[in-house]
Batch of 2 targets.
Target 1
Amino acid sequence: MATIDWLTRAQRISQRLERLAEITDEPGRLTRTLLSPAMTQATRLAGRWMEEAGLQISSDFIGNLIGQTPGASGKQVFLIGSHLDTVRDAGRFDGALGVVLGIELADIFRSGSDLPFSLWVAAFSDEEGVRFQTAYLGSRAFCGLLHQEDLEVSNREGSLRALLAAGQSQIDLPTGVVSGNQLLAYFEVHIEQGPVLEDRNLPVGVVTAIAGQSRFRFNWTGKAAHAGTTPIPLRRDALLGAARFALQVENACTRFPGLVATVGELNVSPNVSNVVPAQITHSLDVRHQDDFVRAAAVAWLGNEADHIAAERKLSLERLTVQETASVACDQKLTGELAAASKFVTGASLELPSGAGHDAVILSQLCPVAMLFVRCRDGLSHHPDEFVQLADIETALRTVAKFIERLGRAEGGT
Ligand code: GLV
Ligand code: MN
Ligand code: MN
């Protein structure tokens, strides 16, 4: 590789992340969700950067952006990517770092002539699942794993199918952009979103596996009543049922070591200060590295919910909106990545991911690997999320070394 000015490149990544962070659906805080105006604008901008890096761009009906190396037909694809959607009031690194860093790598390996594979970059449109509570809609569509019935998923605005129709998107199912045969590997750089790397004083870490997750929507129904006149024993207060259940969710995390479970979204109806709550809809997100433990915890929580509903004379519906098994990263890729990390930083730390990533979906088509980058205070899904410039530079160097090593391992020059 010719001499590379790593710092200048890291600075460009950082500036681009700042520009993306200005593109939001909600003034004053960073929020970009599937197929929103801000997503369209951010995706266009990333597309321009991809073109400047020599990639040929295309997008699909669900808003994914793909940059391909031109004129490299016949070669297998090494796909680097992450997502451009965010949670509500997000930080600027979750997802966007992997996309922007991938574009920088495409620029570094611009000719790609000495690589035995073709380097593509993906910016997926829905990893967080904020709009429909079900994550990975973007990468599932990319992989051809989104089916007609998945388009019926809905929120208060309507279904995904209606949203696509309103945007006049030509729904193109179930064809994915690439087949598994074409893909040599999928690789994602992501902020750690936890405190381990900071604690070990390391800039990057190699991901071993990604935890499985289950997501549900719960709907508790009681009866609205006057807050001043209805005695407590005569009430059917849906909020109290849901609140009691939320505490059992916390208890489950003690009962099943290693479990993390969260009630993160809650809607109260009629949501009026002097009316007993009649209906509660809330999310439930359950994760564990071990799928058996997750399944056992989900069953236990289901029983607890039924018990609370019966005790409080509430009716209860629950809908599974997502089930993804835990995914192991590929050992060969992980070995090359660990060697690259050792070369660049003098150390290599392996760690699992509690957060979900598009790699979970891509693993159904090809081997996957991930590199984590240290973040301040382990903070993520928060506007104060922060990665220092020196760590961006180290991540860039590490991945460039990884690609070089992989090129040699795959028979390149
Ligand atoms: C994605 O950030 C997730 O793990 O929820
Ligand atoms: Mn996230
Ligand atoms: Mn993410």
Target 2
Amino acid sequence: MIYFDHNATAPMLPEARQAWLEAAEKFIGNPSSPHRIGSRADAALSDARERLASFLGCDALDIVWTSGATEASNMVLHHFAQLAPAQSEAWISAIEHPCVLETAKSYFSKRLLLIPAHRSGVINIHWIRERLAHSRPAFIALMAANNETGVLQPWREALALCRESGVPLFCDATQWIGKLPATGLGECDFVSGSAHKFGGPKGVGFLKCPAKGRVEPLLYGGKQEEGRRAGTENVAGVLSMVAALEIREVTMRRTREDGDLKMENRGLTQSSSSSSAFSCSPVFGSSALTQRLNWREQFERQLLSSLPGAAIIGAEAPRIWHTISALMPEADCQQRWVVKLDKLGFAVSTGSACASGREEPSHVLRAMGHSTADTSRVLRFSSGWETREEDWDALLAALAKLSRRS
Ligand code: PLP
């Protein structure tokens, strides 16, 4: 089976598995226990905190270990719902993952304002700028890279606007971390990430939140994580996650002598009429990334030429190297494509991990102005670091074969 559903979850890296096994054997104590066995586990967590913080560019104490990005998002929304003034609004981008959007609806209800997106899939940064000129929300939430379309979002620009206005920014970086360098994300007030999206184990993630200042806990019943998250920490999971991230970060740092920084100009820094000019750099300087972006672009070109009527969603926007959201020709609905591709040995998806198999049209595509009919024609191909050029070729051949049959 060839796996093209990495945005749902990615296979575990052998090094991450090894780190997990070693940690499970070596750190048997509870990190909160006062004896040396407990202290050793606690020291291992502190070391992992330092390592993650060095990638994000923040203080180690800003990191809280969680069970994943869903919990981290819930923590942020819960925090603001408890501490923000009663009338204050939450401004959330219309294309957020349901773990942000649904939680925000439940906590903020009528006080929730959706930041609109352009047809390109990029949120409207002018909307934020204009509104901030006369009002202040409790916080703003903008993801780094969209899980359905791969469209990169102007979180740096949003951060600058938030800084000027004294408004906290929450960035769900789940699809960015481990795929693009994490550097700079730590400047956002709140950042979430999840190990299983980049080769770590499932059920572990983190929230970067301000160490100084109060964070209202979501889980009560223990003083772990400086009182910010009760519950015994998943020591082996955390060490395995950080081991996976280290491998991804090292891969991204490996730059070629001939300097392929020009990749930044291939849709990674962009200026378009539908969205403000924004920069996602420092991003592509790594030959590993360049190569994967080339494969994705080549696949897209060939897909469009071999399947008349197909289109790439968000084609005009800067997009992360591993995600393609394709509007398939009208002949067949997305579920049938998924089943037929599965029979041919390819795992693909109809949308986000959580939206897969669901009947409702994707809120992301709807926010981009696509019709309900369009949303039922979309397939998502999400590759990973281990995906090879020949895997893309094989997928293309399978799609062409199925399209000839229909
Ligand atoms: N945020 C984004 C952008 C995601 O893609 C996902 C998973 O699909 C999540 C959050 C939820 O992550 P987790 O599985 O760690 O709860």
